[in-house]
Design a protein that fits this description.
The protein is α+β, with helices and mostly antiparallel strands. It has a single domain, classed as Pnp Oxidase, Chain A. Helix content is 22%, strand content 42%. It has a 7-stranded antiparallel β-sheet with strand order 2-1-5-6-7-4-3. β1 and β2 form a beta hairpin. The longest helix is centred in the C-terminal third of the chain and has 12 residues. This is Pyridoxamine 5'-phosphate oxidase N-terminal domain-containing protein. InterPro entries: Pyridox_Oxase_N, Split_barrel_FMN-bd.
Amino acid sequence: MLTEQMKSLVKGGKCLVATAGKDGWPNIGPKGSVMLVDDSTLAFGEVTGKQTYQNLVENPKVAIAVMDYEQRVGYRFTGTAKLETEGPLFEQFAQRFAAMNLPRPVAAVKVKIESVYDLGIQNPGGKIE
């Protein structure tokens, strides 16, 4: 599902994660830890356990946006999140965060991508997958 260009942008680490709780109020925040799990799954470490985490507990639907403003290309990945508080993925984020002198994550958030939208100038807002 993810193209090489999409993977490259995600690896660049300039991602925003959007969530909404059961009340419908949106939340968006930068997540520098977004990584590829496989060709249809992204993940990030949730370090604060605040609004993003609380929203995902109430509503696992999530959007992750990544953009290269200079090249005018970007994508929005939407999917369903799974919160993992133990296991290999969680420990991978715990090690990455420790290396950056950050606290252990509250959870690893694994997102199965269900659709991809173009945020670039070629097909703005157009659904890709």
